């Protein structure tokens, strides 16, 4: 049996109390953080543990075997080897707007399935004032507190990822000060959290947030984070939707031993995003498999055939052998080699923060692509997090608490 979340939190309180008993400021902060958590977990036992000495927490003497603790690197930092995104929840305009509400059971289920961390997309910008000091809503902050507490209670590292800041992509100069102010607040609030809490400065920079603008802005945001989180793992990615190419070619970051570079992997995108309703018309052809070529030629929709790059892609997909097919292994390897070039040149860790294929593709193709992408990333030393949006990309059905067994197997073996 698993330790109940109440007892796990109790143990974490005990460890935290030992570490910070000499700092009144940190003790007050811990009390504040756990008070918000207690609204969602059984409170009385944790309160008693907090007020008592650390040895007051009772632990099972002979617990049954459990999944190993999150792998750690130097200085106790999480290595972020295998993770799951908890998407479409806290980065929606309001949690639930996109059909996903997080549940406390999600965290232990992810851990029990063999993952060591979660990536938590969060739209702080949708819950902050539009004028200085750009204050983040306290009730929304409390929800992020809740997620962090449940991840740690489940022995999961957690990445707090600033997600869906669309205004910044469209008007970067007008939103630069607000972006930095958001990170000032996040960094201050979580400055005493364990190293297992990581930060990701911005998901998928794109649009008018060019490489030059982003490189300058990320340095400003990193500066305010480092003011009170000097050793915390911070993740950064390049422009053009966190492409591997821009990781390699345009990302410029300060020398910082606690930085991790990231990219997202959705190539070949005509396969992974086929028929996605939010994509442009040229992406609406379905029936694309992995790897190509198909048993019978696939005719692209008219909107796709009118675009030269898409027309050429389908021509090659329908006729070229698997080794050179644009929906084949070479398309995956090419992207990962770009990221590996960056890792080798900069001598820093690289993390594949998102990858998945939509369920408009046949399950067999999704499984093959997922397994190959995961294996090739691991072969190059990249940690990763599968993009699970609770919908068309999901591997884990949060409503039923069940996994898509074929996809889970592809992520594990």
Tell me the name of the CATH class of the largest domain.
Answer: Alpha Beta
Uncertain ranges? 1-70
CATH superfamily of the largest domain: Glycosidases
Distance between the termini: 25 Å
Number of domains: 3
Strand content: 5-15%
> What kind of oligomer do you see?
single chain
Helix content: 40-55%
The appropriate CATH architecture of the largest domain is Alpha-Beta Barrel
Number of strands: 10
Task: Characterize the largest beta sheet: strand count, sense, and whether it forms a barrel.
Answer: 8 strands, parallel, barrel
Q: What is the CATH topology assignment of the largest domain? A: TIM Barrel
Q: What value does the average pLDDT take?
A: 86
Listing every helix as H and every strand as E from the N terminus to the C terminus, the arrangement reads HHHEHEHEHHEHEHHEHHHHEHEEEH
- Radius of gyration equals 22 Å
Shape: globular
Count, helices = 16
What would you call the structural class?
A: alpha/beta
Strand order of the largest sheet: 1-2-3-4-5-6-7-8
């Amino acid at each position: 049996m698993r330790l109940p979340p109440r007892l796990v939190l109790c143990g974490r309180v005990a460890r935290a109390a030992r570490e910070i008993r000499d700092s009144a400021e940190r003790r007050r902060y811990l009390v504040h953080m756990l008070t918000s958590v207690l609204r969602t977990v059984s409170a009385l036992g944790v309160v008693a543990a907090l007020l008592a000495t650390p040895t007051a927490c009772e632990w099972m003497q002979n617990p049954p075997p459990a999944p190993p603790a999150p792998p750690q690197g130097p200085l106790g930092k999480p290595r972020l080897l295998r993770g799951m995104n908890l998407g479409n929840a806290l980065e929606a305009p309001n949690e639930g707007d996109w059909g996903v509400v997080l549940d406390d059971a999600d965290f232990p289920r992810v851990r029990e399935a063999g993952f060591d961390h979660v990536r938590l997309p969060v739209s702080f910008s949708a819950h902050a004032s539009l004028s200085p000091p750009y204050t983040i809503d306290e009730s929304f902050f409390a929800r992020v507190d809740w997620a962090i507490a449940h991840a740690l209670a489940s022995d999961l590292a957690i990445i707090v990822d600033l997600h869906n800041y669309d205004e910044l992509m469209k008007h970067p100069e007008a939103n630069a000060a607000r972006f930095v102010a958001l990170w000032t607040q996040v960094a201050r609030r979580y400055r005493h959290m364990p190293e297992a809490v990581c930060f990701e400065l911005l998901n998928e920079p794109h649009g008018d947030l060019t490489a030059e603008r982003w490189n300058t802005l990320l340095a400003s945001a990193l500066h305010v984070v480092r003011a009170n989180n000097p050793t915390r793992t911070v993740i950064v990615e390049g422009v053009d939707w966190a492409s591997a190419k821009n990781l390699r070619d345009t990302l410029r970051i300060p020398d910082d031993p606690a930085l991790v570079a990231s990219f997202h992997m959705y190539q070949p995108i005509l396969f992974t995003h086929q028929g996605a309703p939010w994509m442009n018309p040229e992406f609406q052809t379905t029936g694309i498999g992995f790897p190509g070529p198909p048993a019978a030629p696939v005719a692209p929709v008219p909107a796709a055939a009118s675009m030269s790059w898409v027309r050429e892609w389908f021509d090659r997909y329908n006729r070229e052998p698997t080794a050179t097919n644009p929906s084949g292994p070479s398309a995956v390897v090419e992207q990962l080699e770009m990221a590996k070039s960056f890792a080798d040149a900069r001598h820093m860790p690289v993390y594949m923060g998102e990858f998945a294929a939509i369920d408009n593709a046949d399950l067999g193709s999704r499984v093959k692509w997922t397994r190959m992408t995961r294996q090739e990333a691991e072969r190059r030393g990249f940690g990763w997090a599968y993009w699970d949006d609770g919908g068309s990309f999901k591997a884990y059905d949060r409503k039923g608490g069940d996994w898509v067994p074929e996809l889970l197997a592809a992520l594990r073996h």
